[in-house]
Design brief:
Elements lengths: L3 E3 L1 H8 L5 E4 L7 H10 L4 E7 L1 H10 L2 E8 L10 H8 L9 E4 L2 H12 L4 E4 L6 H4 L7 E4 L6 E5 L5 E10 L4 E2 L7 H7 L2 E10 L18 E4 L17 H10 L3 H12 L5
Parallel strand pairs: 1-12, 2-3, 2-9, 3-4, 4-5, 9-11, 11-12
Antiparallel strand pairs: 6-8, 7-8, 9-10
Helix pairs in contact: 1-2, 2-3, 3-4, 5-7
């Protein structure tokens, strides 16, 4: 398909409406710019899919955008402070902030769910995890089941099919071909499973510039490409900029209470509009 060049605000507004199911990449590089745009647009009842949740997911919890979250983890990579909004939500049994359904998956099971979605299957067999919270306490929130087949019984995970996947790239060309500098993780599966794909690149280059072997996501999967330097700040991008540890620490201090988080959100995210 022919990808369309968009600025960030236009791409998010076009591809995410209230009630959308949104994958936010990448593993190890959180797209804060997309999450903050969702907050400024005041999107509601979103079902977010994010393997490497970190403080971006924590901020989406606190901002009240989410109906559900399918995730691998939600923590602060700069300890020892926790992700405070997630902690409040978990300790309330998912009832704080209007209630959010939590579906916590291991990265392997998360990837299997995307693989099922990419192949048009209703589910994917996964290794059983007896003795873990995924099985014994249903951390997955109903995403796992036990099925019989002609080849024997198996634990399965339901397919994951996001309405749109936002994927971070180091470079992308004007045809939508994207080169990812960091770990790929589940990103290629998300690009194949999602109904639409938006690449958010640190740098946009002319078509034909990228060496074929460097392309992680082919342009034929991409609906729109956005050039947005600093896309994952305050996180770091390999070869571009380092993680802003002081910004992480400041967020942890200010989000310790709901009022502190609200003040941080107004100052850093809402006040940054335009």
């Amino acid at each position: 398909m022919m990808s369309t060049r968009r600025d960030l605000a236009a791409a998010v507004a076009e591809h995410v409406t209230d009630g959308s199911r949104v994958y936010l990449g990448n593993f190890g590089a959180q797209l804060f710019c997309v999450g903050h745009e969702l907050i400024r647009l005041r999107r509601k009842r979103l079902d977010v899919v994010i393997a490497s949740g970190g403080l971006l997911l924590d901020q989406l919890f606190g901002a009240g955008l989410l109906r559900s979250a399918t995730f691998g983890h939600c923590w602060s990579p700069v300890g020892p402070a926790p992700a405070w909004n997630f902690r409040r939500l978990a300790e309330s049994g998912g009832t704080s902030g209007g209630g959010v359904r939590l579906h916590e998956l291991s990265l392997g099971v998360f990837s299997a769910a995307l693989a099922a979605g990419a192949q048009g299957l209703p589910f994917m067999p996964v290794p059983d995890l007896p003795g873990t919270g995924y099985v014994d306490e249903d951390w997955t929130g109903g995403r796992l089941a036990w099925v019989d087949s002609a080849f024997g019984p198996a634990r399965v995970v339901s397919a994951e099919v996001p309405d749109v996947a936002f994927i971070h790239a180091d470079r992308a060309d004007t045809d939508g071909n994207a080169a990812i500098a960091g770990p790929l993780g589940e990103v290629p599966l998300a690009a194949q499973a999602a109904r639409r794909v938006v690449v958010v690149a640190e740098e946009l280059v002319p078509a034909g510039t990228l060496a074929p072997r460097s392309v992680s996501i082919p342009g034929l999967l991409v609906d729109a490409v956005v050039e947005h330097p600093g896309a994952v700040r305050p996180d770091g991008a390999i070869g571009r900029y380092d993680r802003d540890v002081e910004a992480y620490q400041e967020y942890s201090r200010r989000s310790r209470t709901p009022d502190g988080f609200a003040a941080w959100l107004r100052h850093v995210v809402i006040g940054a509009a335009g």
